[in-house]
Amino acid sequence: xxxxxxxxxxxxxxxxxxxxxxxxxxxxxxxxxxxxxxxxxxxxxxxxxxxxxxxxxxxxxxxxxxxxxxxxxxxxxxxxxxxxxxxxxxxxxxxxxxxxxxxxxxxxxxxxxxxxxxxxxxxxxxxxxxxxxxxxxxxxxxxxxxxxxxxxxxxxxxxxxxxxxxxxxxxxxxxxxxxxxxxxxxxxxxxxxxxxxxxxxxxxxxxxxxxxxxxxxxxxxxxxxxxxxxxxxxxxxxxxxxxxxxxxxxxxxxxxxxxxxxxxxxxxxxxxxxxxxxxxxxxxxxxxxxxxxxxxxxxxxxxxxxxxxx
Length: 310
Ligand code: IMP
Ligand code: MG
Prior knowledge:
alpha/beta, binds inosinic acid, 7 helices, binds magnesium ion, disordered N terminus
């Protein structure tokens, strides 16, 4: 994302749409646009041509300057993409050399396509294998956006529960990433417990079966249910009834994603990470047939990828 996007979700409630609201960047070349998309895909912040370095001056006048294509703040490095045209290559090499001489503190890299994929991999942004990203349609929420929103939620929860010792109750397995990140953003004493449930049949009847019950006693506790996504609300509705019967002092709900358009049961939700449109999403804990949970971002599946669509 460009820097504008990195700041786009600053309101109390994030929105997956914010990515589209950034002013469009005009790229000089297709390869630059492609590079920007790859950076977005991995949630790496970037700025396009943010700075021009004077290389040679005659009197007061700058007669030669260099504007690298990208700046990546996370690794404090300027990137100049190369093309196949040999005369341009020679000129770019020359400019990079001069820039390094004149500004020894500035990190700059000249990259061709193969190089930049390798660079991203080196900094830990590459997927485990190309196969693990098959089926991904587009990134809906980048890992930088997730990180920021989760810390905002943590701050809000910490404020609301100040002086208390909340019990975070997660529903496996989808909540694994969110819970792991959220609990580390709450500087209060917290207890954490998990339960596993499954829909009894695969209909939307809302009947759930408990596969793993809680270890903790809920009586008199301040319970915060942490969910990955609320879709029809049937699962949560059933779960809240079950938890309420165990007489907690308070019972609230925090969900990372809210697919409000699909709601069938009006369940009260106290904390929402992002409202998302009615699309099937994967990543950051969420699966499609048990895969994709390890993606560090939330994405949509390619049209036709799901069984039944094909
Ligand atoms: P609900 O009972 O319809 O609200 O269903 C919530 C559960 O359905 C979530 O905890 C997820 O396990 C699953 N789910 C709903 N939508 C999605 C999605 O878009 N991707 C992955 N899992 C989903
Ligand atoms: Mg779930």
